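ingest -> fold -> write
write: protein_1
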Amino acid sequence: MKVATWNVNGIRARQDQLLEWLENEKPEVLCLQEIKAAPEQIPRSLLELEGYWNCWHGQKGYSGVSLHVRRDLAREAPVFSHPDFDFESRLAAVDLGPLRVLSCYVPNGGKDFFAKMRFLADLHSYVGHLLAEGRQLLLCGDLNVTRTDLDVHPKERRKSAIGQLPEEREALEGILGQGLVDLTRMLHPEAPEIFTWWPPWRKMRERNIGWRIDYILASEALAATARECLPRREFGTSDHGPLVARLDWQVTQA
């Protein structure tokens, strides 16, 4: 099973790139963030994305996420949902048998840091509840937190920068500590300069001076089957690169 997540920073600006990328990458599960469009604004070629069951969860000009599941992975339309603590269209979920997939866009925190920390706390409780039920879980998306300094280029490390603050990292580690695995770090534990976001100036992306803030987190049994989880830095004009994981996991539907 191939799973991909991408903060597109505006789906209408990136629609042709997304279609091109899907044709080449062909993920079975796709999570998008920061689509910045209400469903009625989504181009029809994407709204009814061929070969996928689609959930668009957005609003005009801000935030928003989507979830897409290939029809050959799910024979019947799966159930999409949004947890009660979702706000500003930041979280969508889909059930594939015992597996729940989440497309998540954590607030940046620059304008309302309290809202970011509250969202992370609610996400902690939600993940803990799902894992306690015995669910398999994939949490994919832009979490807007770097785990350690290894996830920030040395030129970008700042102790006072939101996204690098100790309390944010502690909140993310708390979510992971309930039984989730960071697939990129599991497969590449000490590798430097694996980034998913780059400041959009001074050719930072070309120079690979960035942050790792996009993740695919998996429950432990699922993570044990992971074979790949790396960003595609070379693709697209968003300030984020797509992140793609490959797992030897067979979806079973009830």
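write: protein_2
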Amino acid sequence: MNVVCLDLEGVLVPEIWIAFSKASGIPELKRTTRDEPDYDKLMKWRLGILRDHGLGLREIQRVIQTVDPMPGAKEFLDALREITQVIILSDTFTQFATPLMKKLGWPTIFCNTLEVAPDGMVTGYKMRVEKSKLATVRVLQSVGFDTIAAGDSYNDLAMIQASKAGFLFRSTEQIKRDHPELPAFEEYGELLSAIRAAL
């Protein structure tokens, strides 16, 4: 049995923090896991910026409502789900992901949770489990699944490298240079063909 594990942001939907950076006019929030390998460091930095600007969950959710999947993403996901099981493994948060999952046809997603004060300010976050993408792949493998993984960022590398087959999708030039052993694709059709061949 195979299961495909996909990253969300940068693979199926635009980066939420980049969209919020543009909408809020705060350029520092453009920094993502494509730039910063240490997720905890990145999130604490983001939460500090939100506090400094008095911005909370409501403001971010308003921007997320305007974000659409990347062109071709839903069709790719639909085609993939016709031939195998798919789980989206993301370091985003349930409070961000729900409207995006609706637009993608409600695929299964495993992600994290924000801690939000009554006034809507984001006070922290709770990871599902440490190194959640790799941990999830390892558990799937332990119950008899072969995993195939694809992502674009530093936090996707462990699950890609631990899988039977793994691919970079629309990744950075730096990550591609650092990992020439990983096939890298730019188009959904190419990625779908590579996954089909690996099944």
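write: annotation protein_2
The chain has a mean pLDDT of 95.
Residues 35 and 124 are 21 Å apart (CA to CA).
pipeline exit 0
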